[in-house]
Amino acid sequence: MNYRIMIKYLLFTGCILLYNPSFSQKTDPKWDETKTEKWPEGFLEVEIKSSLDGKNQKAYFQKSQKAGKQPLVVSLHTWSGDYTQKDTLALVCRSKGYHYIHPNFRGPNTNFEACGSAAAIQDIDDAIDFAIREAKVDLNNIHVIGASGGGYATLLAYMNSKHQIKTFSSWVPISNLEEWYYQSKTRGNKYAFHIAKATHEQHNFTPDKFELNKKEARKRSPFFMETPIKKRENSQLHIYAGVHDGYTGSVPITQSLQFYNKLVMDIAPASQHELIPLEDIIVLLANRSYPGGLKGKLGNRQIHYQKQLKDSVSITIFEGGHEMLPYIALDHL
What we know:
Helix content: 25-40%
CATH topology: Rossmann fold
Radius of gyration: 19 Å
Distance between the termini: 41 Å
Number of domains: 1
Low-confidence stretches: 11-28
CATH class: Alpha Beta
Number of helices: 10
Order of helices and strands: HEEEHEHEHEHHHEHHEEEH
Mean pLDDT: 91
Shape: globular
Largest sheet: 10 strands, mixed
């Protein structure tokens, strides 16, 4: 069977395998909180003018207090959040002496201007430009990090950013909005409605009556974007997913697994042995573990499955759910 056809079949059956009829999000999950957070003293609220449409986008920003050029961490907010959302990485970056920026990029992914639009993608690059202008940034040491919707934004940055980024760290990301729409609709959570609204410039949808613009969803999906192979020759992308996500969380691990395989096929089509086999994906989905697999640790969490393409792309499926491990997220610096 053709590999892409097998993946489509698997993604469809994955919706059924992962369906939990009691799963319905009435409140924000831990990694998608929307409440405004009072930020610690020293983090400046700044405005950054979009180089695409001239609209101002806010961000929280802090310069390193260390002398000389220092790394820059670009921390991306989650699906329903914005730049004011609490970020566990902020104080860690301060303690380590890193420059830090937490951009808005059009806020929650519930409107046409957000959710992987050209404007939202450009806002991330504009935030990096701002940090480079305002601080002594080591241009060989820029790192983009995000979880959930921020993981999605991290993949968008990987596929589109003009900057030479050293590492992209994407936790429990969405890579295919079209698939995630149906996966979310199956689970009865709010994200299908969000995607429907974000893929229509004009609509009169209600939470019980909405539809997907498939063309726009694909346009905004990293999975369907052209991989910038030459531009990312000196970059690393690290993808992480908790093995229980999709059962206890909102994003099935197939969103991570399929994107890793896409990159392998795009970057090194001759390296078929680096692909994640269909049989392995089925085992991970069915068992929520990989019997006889790796016994290593990610921090204090068991690693169930791991693959790597040379020194450019890696994926780690760990014991956990829809989450980022903050004490691990900055390890690549």
